[in-house]
Amino acid sequence: xxxxxxxxxxxxxxxxxxxxxxxxxxxxxxxxxxxxxxxxxxxxxxxxxxxxxxxxxxxxxxxxxxxxxxxxxxxxxxxxxxxxxxxxxxxxxxxxxxxxxxxxxxxxxxxxxxxxxxxxxxxxxxxxxxxxxxxxxxxxxxxxxxxxxxxxxxxxxxxxxxxxxxxxxxxxxxxxxxxxxxxxxxxxxxxxxxxxxxxxxxxxxxxxxxxxxxxxxxxxxxxxxxxxxxxxxxxxxxxxxxxxxxxxxxxxxxxxxxxxxxxxxxxxxxxxxxxxxxxxxxxxxxxxxxxxxxxxxxxxxxxxxxxxxxxxxxxxxxxxxxxxxxxxxxxxxxxxxxxxxxxxxxxxxxxxxxxxxxxxx
Length: 361
Prior knowledge:
Layout: E1 3-6, H1 15-24, E2 27-31, H2 44-53, E3 54-57, H3 61-75, E4 101-103, H4 110-118, E5 131-133, H5 135-150, E6 154-157, H6 161-171, H7 182-196, H8 204-216, H9 221-240, H10 247-280, H11 290-301, H12 320-338, H13 344-348, H14 351-354
Parallel strand pairs: 1-2, 1-6, 2-3
Antiparallel strand pairs: 4-5
Helix pairs in contact: 1-2, 1-8, 2-8, 3-4, 3-5, 5-6, 7-9, 7-10, 9-10, 10-12
């Protein structure tokens, strides 16, 4: 999937999740109560990241209506006591005090709030205009709403995985279902692919520059490479999220993924190196002086290229047209090579060139 929907909060609070989103998705949507709602972020970098990939998703009438129907079905059964809202009368500093989970009323239909109050899942509307719920109740309601909003075109992602693990039974998830969700699978695989190029600690600033490059470039080359990278992860993410996968299976799938990404990255670098040498040894690539060779090669390939073994024809002036032809042929071959490798996106990110390459199997 090309986009994801975040829940349960109105802003993404986890930097790791935002970094994953910058690498994977075209957009990271988040549920807001009204269209012009402005999410707030604790620092400039996260705010900038969400300006690039973030998109507010205000539930439309159809989604709210679907939510209402599913809520009615959910409430029409025996519910665990953790879901019920109980007004806290104890000292807020006491060991058993729990802050209520507050929700904007605009996220649901008025009739849905009526159902929740009648079922004692939601309390009386507060002076702040929000409805209070227990934490388990609020997380459960937001899970159902996110499912209605995400549909079949967006992945659902959350940074409250531990909390949702405790309410999975309330929602009705199959206890024998997948031990790893699809969203969690992506989170497990991305660091493995970064480790392949020894860039596991890549900063969010690097990823921001990459997405800015993607927005400015013509031809969507980087975007297409990112999509291919995501497609490479998707197969393994689906295997990890298989309900029949055991912990041993998960370890083996992750090992296979690491091996395949190492092999892909090694092949990528070898093929790019071969294409570069072939261009350098082309009869059209003639340099008149050794000093010119270095500058011309740098311009030709956009990076330092090994020049050992280059045969030059001394005294024969280089023709600009010939060099341009070699350059265009090389760039065309380079693009064709990149398109064949899932790891090409990370290579093009500049991460690989800044890191030490560890490509041994």
